[in-house]
Design a protein that fits this description.
Length: 305
């Protein structure tokens, strides 16, 4: 079930204030698709896009959204109904790359971590896993309510294929997303003829030149600009649109995206990522930082008061 023409359709894109999701939102708008920009805030480049599409067709609407708050996720769909009648395409794309404030190697209660040792939650997992799962639930209910097909595009990562000790929460979250996408494959071919088909797919990008890297000096130093290639967010956005419009990218597809390349990732016996834009050269230095943290006295110990 493809949506071969997105003109006149409506999309909800979380995390569209920057990066891959902004590029996807811009691409959809260029194809005549209305877009709800759902994010905490818009970077200047995103605000410029929204401002340029305030009137006419297609339109862009900014809906301030904290994706860790479920009522705000529901509100995105209410806004879609109010502004456009319904949504056809949903991308729960907001994500974080294991920042210092929610990081496995900086335990709750230590250093810059904002995760409380008494909260029972990692914010990084709430953003990267719980938010896309809950958004998908709401999207399915929305499509069923409006009795029309829908397309849900997730953002996984090559980290779901090549785990690394440097960012274990991020790796776990992307393994979860790839598995989640594959588990919903059969939604595209419902057994009940009264149930509209819903396509759930995902992209698994390599090293993408977005604020997740560029705004994080601790991660950016892993990249050797003389050796390593970046994947552009525009390349990823193009493949996300392909997942919506192409007949052969059926539900459950996880599409790996490198520099100038894309391929469907197999569930079993997959050869793994290779080629340009799939690695960073200074991984060894980054792994050394993990051991330095563990060697520090008191790692992971929470003071009891």
């Amino acid at each position: 079930m493809a949506l071969p023409n997105v003109q006149g359709k409506t999309a909800i894109v979380t995390g569209s204030g920057a990066g891959i999701n902004l590029c996807f939102a811009k691409l959809l708008l260029s194809k005549g698709c209305n877009v709800i920009f759902a994010d905490l805030a818009l970077r200047p480049e995103a605000k410029e896009v929204v401002d340029a599409h305030q009137n006419g067709s297609p339109r862009a609407v900014f809906q301030q959204t904290d994706v860790t708050d479920w009522p705000q996720l529901e509100r995105m769909f209410e806004v879609a109904e109010k502004e456009f009648g319904s949504a056809d395409i949903v991308c729960p794309g907001a994500g974080v790359y294991e920042p210092a404030w929610s990081n496995f190697w900086i335990p709750p209660g230590q250093g810059p971590s904002k995760d409380s040792p008494t909260s029972n939650r990692y914010t990084a997992m709430d953003i990267n896993v719980t938010h896309p799962i809950r958004t998908t639930q709401i999207a399915i209910a929305h499509f069923l309510k409006h009795k029309h097909p829908g397309s849900i595009v997730h953002i996984s990562s090559i980290a779901a294929q090549i785990p690394t000790i440097m960012v274990p929460l991020y790796v776990a979250s992307k393994f979860a997303i790839s598995g989640f996408v594959r588990s919903l494959k059969q939604l595209e071919t419902p057994l009940d003829p009264l149930v509209a088909p819903i396509r759930v797919t995902g992209v698994a990008p390599g090293v993408v030149k977005t604020p997740l890297w560029l705004d994080n000096p601790d991660k950016l130093k892993w990249v050797d600009e003389g050796k390593d290639d970046w994947v552009t967010p525009e390349e990823v956005a193009e493949q996300m649109l392909e997942l919506v419009v192409r007949e052969d990218y059926v539900g459950g597809t996880v599409l790996e995206v490198g520099k100038g390349q894309a391929r469907a990732v197999e569930i079993l016996h997959d050869p793994g990522p290779s080629g340009s834009g799939m690695t960073v050269s200074n991984r060894g230095d980054a792994r050394g930082e993990v051991w330095d943290r563990l060697a520090a006295e008191g790692w992971g110990q929470v003071s009891k008061h």
